[in-house]
Amino acid sequence: MSTDLKPHLTRAHMLELLRGMIRIRRFEDRCAELYTREKIRGFLHLYDGEEAVAVGSIPVLEPEDRVVATYREHGHALARGLPMTTVMAEMFGKASGCSGGRGGSMHLFDAATNFHGGNAIVGGGLPLAAGLALGDQMRGEARVTACFFGEGAVAEGEFHETMNLAALWRLPCLFVCENNLYAMGTALGRSESVASIRDKAACYGIEAEEVDGMDVVAVESATRRAVATIREGGGPRFLECRTYRFRAHSMFDAQLYRDKAEVEAWRSKGPIVRFQGWLMENALIHADDVARIEAEAEAEIDAAVAFAEAAAWEPLEDLTHHVVAEARPAPPPPPAQPGNTVETTYREAVRAAIMDAMIRDERVFLMGEDVGAYGGCYAVSKGLMAEFGPDRIRDTPLSESGFTGAGIGAAMAGMRPIVELMTVNFSLLALDQILNTAATIRHMSGGQFGVPLVIRMATGAGRQLAAQHSHSLEGWYAHIPGLRVLAPATLEDARGMLWTALQEPDPVLIFENVMLYNRAGRIAADAGAVEIERAAVRRPGRDLSLITYGGSLWKTLEAAEALAADGIEAEVIDLRVLRPLDDATILGSVARTRRAVVVDEGWRTGSLSAEIAARIVEGAFWSLDAPVGRVCSAEVPIPYPKHLEDASIPQVPAIVAAAKAALGRS
Predict the structure, then answer these.
(1) Which residues face 420 on adjacent strands?
(2) In this structure, are residues 560 and 541 in contact, taking their beta carbons and an 8 Å threshold?
(3) Torsion 427-430-432-433 (CA) sign
(4) Highest averaged pLDDT of the listed ranges 186-195, 266-275, 344-353
(5) Who contacts 362 (Cβ-Cβ below 8 Å, separation ≥6)?
(6) Of the listed 348, 400, 571, 611, which one is catalytic?
(7) Cβ distance 135 to 363 under 8 Å?
(8) Which residues have CB under 8 Å from 661's CB, separation 6+?
(9) Contact 602, 459 (CB under 8 A)
(10) Is 479 helix (H, G, I), strand (E, B) or coil?
């Protein structure tokens, strides 16, 4: 073994290890005190007892390496080099905190040190770490991503999905499990049929090592070996650090699940007691060294508290900052009048958009289930693997949360992923990553990190695929701040929205209705990007506004034709963008026609149509001559038989009837 893989136990290094642990311990002690004084609020998870893991591992990393932590991350943050002043200010929720006061105790972020934050979702940081490593691997950057999590995370699906992805793609990841023996209040032996966490990682072919997490030198030695192997192209490595937290799970925890004698027994062999005692016994340090370290730590903590106390609160007028990027790319120019046109289908238009994006930007890649093997469930990417290879047309395991989280991380690492989720129903398996990471990380980090990611998914009913493959849940996602939600219905939008979405600094979800893939028509041969800001008037009219999106657009246009035969001129609005909604176009149309019907393939209760109706009432009430009408799916799971499926979703006769009802006609 190279001597570079061993800790250099010089006096200076030994003092540095001791200083790092004492500094974290004293910081945590002060935070506990401040919590009782209500200076720090919310959940506070203390790292007391686990300091050897952070201090022994994180300084081994290079500055360009990345760190993903869990919600007990104060020790990780301080070991990584975040200033104690900004960490303390974040604990107070002040604007000068490391996350701008937006994250608090569980969400410390710092772009300057490549600290990608704590994650309050157990196991939620694992796919993110895999994605950061994937992005670096694809960009040819020699970085290591270290991911810290507790033993409770190993019961989560995201743990197993991530281990499989990391091993499969040989990602440069160091996974560090801080096994403190209790997942919240449940002892490991009561929650896991196999108590060896190292063995769980090894099942995926990852070289794993069990380490005494109370021994800072042992942790450093193991980390040096693991990181060296990763840097040599050896793929992911896993450390199970056996440690113990001396305090409760959080400051809310009454800690009734273990007795004081157990805690005291562990305290007697804690990492600071153990290391400091060994150094003193061997005359490697002296009492005045310890006194100096403790005094320095207290002085630094006093200064940090003073900084936090004096720091300003973020002004109320800044409440909506950092939900999405404030600087966005200019929209593409309006398309020119088409010259030469070609016959195509919606499916071919989406495929052409993916091809164009991958040719224009080498950072773009597509990943999802079977996207390479046979072009995905709806054959959109058929043939693209032969064109671009398996790295850029990347087949994934059946692990929606894992590969969606990996896409998020890859986007944060500088790539431009297109993640394909086979169907909107399956997207619920990735909802944690979409809602809790992609949509929130810009806000929680105070604008330091964004997620320029595109997620495509098939949606809608009509193919007799029954309830678990047929719903329209776009309205659910349109409810979430931090996302942009698109529903292309025309060939031009299917072809042009993707490139524009890939320029966005924030996550974009694109919903492709299954009934549109075979729809054929002509499109300009040189069709390019289209803007994703405004709704489109697809048919002008004067008598009422029919407002819809996606697969229902063509039914609504057909209904408008039928109404025209009865002398009723309906204006048809294609929303195109479901978040943010284009209020100006909607309200402008209603101001002209004075009546509105919203056609929405989602369920009526709590639907996107309800939101649109509310906005019309709020913004155009005095223009209305009739209540806002709605045509929605029946309040049933989508049935399998064709006649029942058709009856459960909006159809032309129902749209015509609702329009006539709004006009007072039978």
Answers:
(1) 368, 456
(2) yes
(3) negative
(4) 344-353
(5) none
(6) 400
(7) no
(8) 629
(9) no
(10) coil
- Domains of the chain, CATH where assigned: 3-80+110-307 (3.40.50.970), 343-524 (3.40.50.970), 537-662 (3.40.50.920)
pLDDT one-digit tens code per residue, 507-543:
999 999 999 999 999 999 999 999 999 999 999 999 9
Question: Nearest to residue 308, comparing CAs of 90, 83, 624?
Answer: 90
Query: What span, in angstroms and rounded, lies between the C-alpha atoms of 589 and 664?
Result: 19
Query: CA-CA distance, 68 to 199, in Å (whole number)?
Result: 22
Distance CA 442, CA 436 (A): 11
Q: Which residues are CB-neighbours of 110 under 8 A, at least 6 positions away?
A: 77, 80, 82, 86, 98, 448
**Can you point out the beta strands (E) in 213-272?**
237-242
Is 655:545 a contact under the CB 8 Å cutoff? Answer: no
Residue with tokens 């005045």: 288
| 202 vs 167: CA distance, rounded Å | 10
Output the six-digit token pair for 382. Answer: 């058929």
Q: At what angle do helices 491-502 and 346-360 cross, to 10 degrees?
A: 30
Residue 98 · residue 155 · CB < 8 Å: no
Query: In angstroms, rounded to a whole number, what is the distance separating the alpha carbons of residues 241 and 179?
Result: 6
Summarised one tens digit per residue, pLDDT across range 119-170 is 988 899 999 999 999 999 999 999 999 999 999 889 889 999 999 999 999 9
- Pairwise CA distance, residues 121 & 430, whole Å: 13
The DSSP bridge partners found for residue 174 are: 146, 237
| Residue 345 backbone dihedrals phi, psi, to 5 degrees | -120, 165
| Alpha helices for 363-428 (secondary structure H) | 384-388, 400-412, 424-427
Whether the Cβ atoms of residue 505 and residue 452 lie closer than 8 Å to each other: yes
Instruction: Answer positive or negative: Cα dihedral of 488, 489, 494, 497.
Output: negative
The C-alpha R_g of the chain, in whole angstroms, comes to 28
Neighbour tally for 63: CB within 10 Å: 9
**Residue 114 Ramachandran class (φ > 0 left, ψ -120 to 50 alpha, else beta):** left
pTM confidence score: 0.95
CA distances from 74 to 94, 223, 352 (A): 16, 20, 47
* For residue 580, cis peptide bond before it (omega within 30 degrees of 0): yes
Distances (CA, A) of 659 to 535, 538, 556: 20, 17, 10
- Rounded to an integer, what distance in angstroms lies between the CA atom of residue 60 and that of residue 320? 38
> Across-strand partners of 110?
115
**What mean pLDDT value characterizes the chain?**
94
Tokens read off for 167:
């091993």
10 Å CB burial of residue 478 (0-12, 13-18, 19+) is buried
Edge-to-edge strands, sheet with 544-548: 536-539, 570-574, 544-548, 596-603, 629-633
Where do runs of H (alpha helix) occur along 232-259? Answer: none
Contact 148, 102 (CB under 8 A): no
Is 469 designated active site? yes
Over residues 626-653, the mean pLDDT reads: 96
Give me the catalytic one of 469, 471, 512, 601: 469
3-class secondary structure for 1-49? CCHHHCCCCCHHHHHHHHHHHHHHHHHHHHHHHHHHCCCCCCCCCCCCC
Tokens 């075979």 appear where?
518
Which residues contact residue 160 at a Cβ distance below 8 angstroms, ignoring those fewer than 6 apart? 200, 204
Token pair in block for residue 164: 């499989």
- Provide CB contacts within 8 A for 456, sequence distance 6+: 350, 418, 419, 420, 421, 498, 509, 510, 512
**Whole-angstrom distance, CA of residue 46 vs CA of residue 167:** 32
Indicate if 618 belongs to the active site: no
